[in-house]
Amino acid sequence: MNNEALKRKLYIVIFESDTPAGKAFDILLICCILFSVSIVILETVPGLPTYLATPFIILEYVFTGFFTFEYLTRIYCSPHPKKYIFSFFGIIDLLATLPLYLVFLVPSLRHLLIIRAFRLIRVFRVFKLFNFLMEGQMLLRALRQSSKKIAVFFFFVVILVTSIGTLMYMIEGSRPDSQFDNIPNSIYWAIVTMTTVGYGDITPVTPMGKMLSAFVMLLGYTIIAVPTGIVSVSMMKEYRRQQNVECPNCHKSGHEETAAYCKYCGTKLNEHQSHPS
Amino acid sequence: MNNEALKRKLYIVIFESDTPAGKAFDILLICCILFSVSIVILETVPGLPTYLATPFIILEYVFTGFFTFEYLTRIYCSPHPKKYIFSFFGIIDLLATLPLYLVFLVPSLRHLLIIRAFRLIRVFRVFKLFNFLMEGQMLLRALRQSSKKIAVFFFFVVILVTSIGTLMYMIEGSRPDSQFDNIPNSIYWAIVTMTTVGYGDITPVTPMGKMLSAFVMLLGYTIIAVPTGIVSVSMMKEYRRQQNVECPNCHKSGHEETAAYCKYCGTKLNEHQSHPS
Amino acid sequence: MNNEALKRKLYIVIFESDTPAGKAFDILLICCILFSVSIVILETVPGLPTYLATPFIILEYVFTGFFTFEYLTRIYCSPHPKKYIFSFFGIIDLLATLPLYLVFLVPSLRHLLIIRAFRLIRVFRVFKLFNFLMEGQMLLRALRQSSKKIAVFFFFVVILVTSIGTLMYMIEGSRPDSQFDNIPNSIYWAIVTMTTVGYGDITPVTPMGKMLSAFVMLLGYTIIAVPTGIVSVSMMKEYRRQQNVECPNCHKSGHEETAAYCKYCGTKLNEHQSHPS
Amino acid sequence: MNNEALKRKLYIVIFESDTPAGKAFDILLICCILFSVSIVILETVPGLPTYLATPFIILEYVFTGFFTFEYLTRIYCSPHPKKYIFSFFGIIDLLATLPLYLVFLVPSLRHLLIIRAFRLIRVFRVFKLFNFLMEGQMLLRALRQSSKKIAVFFFFVVILVTSIGTLMYMIEGSRPDSQFDNIPNSIYWAIVTMTTVGYGDITPVTPMGKMLSAFVMLLGYTIIAVPTGIVSVSMMKEYRRQQNVECPNCHKSGHEETAAYCKYCGTKLNEHQSHPS
Asked: Fewer CB within 10 A of the end CB, N or C, for chain D?
């Protein structure tokens, strides 16, 4: 019984953010995340004073210890531990602590601590930014709806850049000191060009190569319209669907995009659920 | 009484542009702004004849004096001085004069005089380009409506480029003379690549780095579709909302996008207000 | 009378392309344009055999003579010479002949002969590609409708890049050998970055400069969504308007996008006019 | 008769993928394609151990032999050989074997074996990814609908880059060591800039050149909105058309986007046909 009471109390503090203690804990957590991510980034900057190296390493262990303790407590006090462990946030929380333990095996893995940055997504829950969460969920729904179209699109883009890269290798590859000295490099060039990134580290020099290059650019210029069109249409659909949300009580629709309650009778609309932990 | 009459007269000349004097003043003001902005830009060009240096500095003080005098007069003759001071244009007007006074403290601040360029927004009011103003306001409304979605989007983009930058640092950072020599630089590279800018000042050289790079480009190619989709849908909504503007007199809707008066009964539509000073 | 008959005959051959003679003349004209444009481009290529130089110059004079003669004949046989002279095609036709005459004044103007390329727009009329013309006109209408919004957008972009360029000059301009050595160069950099072109000829090197740069890129990433949104909405509107074209005879609407005749009663729809010469 | 039975059996194995044998054959085929494409790419990588060269060449002949045999068998067992030969997949299948036979004439053609990658499109059929196929077909329909608009758009882009390239050649071409040393190079630069690729291999150095360059970038920034707008509107239309698919039996519409059967009476909707071969 005492155990159960402790669990419930811990649950309220760690998982919820409505009580003062819960909110304080969440804000502390966010500060720790921001601070530990900053350390991971800063310790790679060359001009850093050497006397900071040791404190940084100590802090890293302290934060990892704290996050590990927090992760274990979350599992302990969660009413459905398995559900938490395999939820999106559960996996992120685990990945945010693991890298430091793996350092003993592969030292360079330490920088993976940056995964902690993803824990910051909690910020929306803590500061009651539910509207933002809903916008984010609407974006995700729109992207998920169009994921098949985008997958097909990428499949063709991959075949296209492979072919264009090979063609470019055939055109420019035989020149001495050519930058297109193998097909993987040429495919890399084709992707750089088609996506309009255009680093300029690999560029054609022959007239034929420049012509193919110009053609690829104009193609990429048009093709970039396809994912944009797909996403725009998905969002438009999502927006219409949302306008048609029907109140479960009075059966009226046409609610505001971010409405949580029916504007006619005040019933909670089950379309916009709050964020699942 | 005499004081009040002077105030009203000044108000008409400075704030309004319907009278010949008001219009003349506004045109003079716009010329001064254009001229002073040109001086700020030109005086940094290396090949400039040296005999121009002194006149340029004198002109800068003359313009700043004029703008300061104008700013004080605006405060003096405004019926609600506080409202003016804290309005968008009030703050711009203040910032357009301050930098020269701060030169005595920090010399390089002089170039901030460029803020004057923002005063040019008045040009729309002076030349009665109300239609343009309305288009601008419609754009702003559409952007404001989608600001939450865009904020969520940017939050994820920031987490994403941080993670990708760190991953790239782990892949290429250990090579001698690597350009990815610290995580902030790698994050900068991730932003340059994801936004399809692609300077080419930092580029991957290892096969693994090129593969990650190609992946980031294709990701950026799709992700660029998200803000475009958001803004397109917002504009579409804004356009529909505008078509539904109801005349306050005859309650008919379906007016033209830029209509200021009801086309059925001539009543002023309160949807499109003229620009607030 | 004889004169009038000649005029009419010439008009049919030169302006129209329904008779065999008219079509033959138009195809000859298009070949001449393509050939003369190719010469203008080719004669600048370094590796060209020298024995081609003289024939190229002679051909240029021959083509210019032919185009001049054609231009004068068009004026002669046009029923409304003034209307032709000041029409879009009339001005293009004039500009396509002038540069060679100006060579005696300014030799480098010869390359302006490239303006002839615009005469190729006739190709749509000659080959009865009316559908393409209509699509082009629909595009133009959509762009014209959104021209005010785009103008306002560009006004703000110009103020923005001026301010960002000046800020960058303040951050990096004082370093020795800085590429941001004057404000016009920095504004040029701001435009290169904001439009996601990213040549990489001018890049920031200080941490502060890189941070501003990253911010400008993310800004440009969002701002690029605005013209796309504007144009998408315009096209959607244009498409809806077209669906609402009402037949002047049977007053039914809902015609196909490229329909020239009412599908219910066969009356010509006055929405899609053929190209005005 | 025996011959016919063999034909039918072969047809089921090679063309269909519903029987275990058919599916096994298709999976074997996809593995062979992936493997042979990987060889074409890998054998160009410089650091490859030399002892792999001979096995790679042998494997290439083995795969080409297998694909040739498969192609001939497909012709043999197809009920309409001509229809297969001139279908999209028939031509791809032929092109996937030809290059190696042409090596005796032109050795460098070997790399065209990469065309095999296009055979991978079968992957959708094999794994019953019909939904993906339908999405792909919807994308293609939307692109085909907008092909005329895009063609007109490209016609103008080509004229525009030709003119801009020539103008740039006139501005910067006369400088010693200029990168704009001939008009084709300048046109290539104009395309690189307008499409926002921005390699940076050719960049303007004079103030006039930079001004033209900035103008072209801002133009390209707006013009990129046109194909995006075209494709977005096409997709929106396609989506609406699909919602209006009428069931041939019960004449009800409003089906899901990817529905193959009427949701009211179960009749097959003839809008979404399965992939032709």
From this structure: N
- A250 has a chain D CB within 8 A of its CB: no
Instruction: Burial-class residue D219 by CB neighbours within 10 Å (0-12, 13-18, 19+).
Output: middle
List all residues of chain C from 153 to 182 with a beta carbon under 8 Å from chain B: 153, 156, 159, 162-163, 166, 169-170, 173-174, 181-182
DSSP helix/strand/coil, A268: strand
Query: pLDDT, tens digit, for every residue of B48-74?
Result: 888 888 888 888 888 888 888 888 988
Asked whether the beta carbons of residue B152 and residue A131 sit closer than 8 angstroms, the reply is: no
Q: Are B153 and B184 in contact (CB under 8 A)?
A: no
Residues of C in contact with D232 (CB under 8 A): 232, 235-236
Is B41's CB within 8 Å of C166's CB? yes
CA gap D236, D255 in Å, rounded: 16
- Would you state the structure tokens that stand for residue D21, as one six-digit string? 């044998």
- C100 and C64 in contact (C-beta within 8 Å)? yes
What does the buried/exposed string (b/e) look like for A256-270 if buried means 16 or more CB atoms within 10 Å of the residue's CB? ebebbebeeeeeebe
Locate the chain B residue with the closest alpha carbon to D193: B197
* C12 vs B271: CA distance, rounded Å: 54
- Write down the pLDDT at residue B212: 93
A-chain residue closest to C45, CA distance:
A207
CATH assignment of C142-243, given 1.10.1240.10, 3.40.50.300, 2.60.40.10, 1.10.287.70? 1.10.287.70
pLDDT over 60 (residue C112)? yes
Q: Calculate helix-pair angle for B207-223, B183-194, nearest 10 degrees.
A: 50
Q: With an 8 Å Cβ cutoff, are B162 and A114 in contact?
A: yes
Per-residue pLDDT of A230-263, as tens digits, reads: 888 888 887 777 666 666 666 665 555 555 666 6
Residues in chain C: 277
Give the distance between the most distant pair of CA atoms in chain B: 82
C206 touches chain A (CB under 8 A): no
- Buried b / exposed e over A141-179, threshold 16 CB at 10 Å, is bbbebbebbbebbebbbbbbbbbbbbbbbbbbbeeeebe
Q: What is the pTM of this model?
A: 0.84
**In angstroms, rounded to a whole number, what is the distance separating the alpha carbons of residues A196 and B218?**
10
What residue type is assigned to position B127 of the chain? Answer: F
pLDDT for res D216: 92
C-alpha A142 chain-centroid distance: 16
| Alpha-carbon gap, residue C85 to D147, rounded angstroms | 34
Q: Which CATH architecture has domain D4-128?
A: Up-down Bundle (1.20)
Cα(D196)–Cα(C223) distance, integer angstroms? 14
Please say whether the beta carbons of C217 and C196 come within 8 A: yes
What is the predicted pLDDT for the residue at D148? 79
The pLDDT tens digits for C122-165 are 766 665 555 666 777 777 887 788 887 788 888 888 888 998 99
Q: What are phi and psi of D261, to 5 degrees?
A: -125, 150
Q: Which two tokens stand for residue A257?
A: 């995009």
* Residue D197 structure tokens: 């690729």
The tens digit of pLDDT for each residue in A72-118 reads 988 888 888 888 888 888 888 888 888 878 777 777 777 777 777 77
- pLDDT for the residue D268: 67
Q: What is the pLDDT of residue A271?
A: 46
Distance (Å, whole) CA B160 – CA B152: 12
Work out the average pLDDT over B235-245. 72
Structure tokens given for B100: 């020269």
**Burial state string for B97-118 with b = 16 or more CB within 10 A and e = fewer than 16:** bebbeebeeeeebbbbbbbbbb
Distinct helix (H) and strand (E) counts, chain B = 12, 0
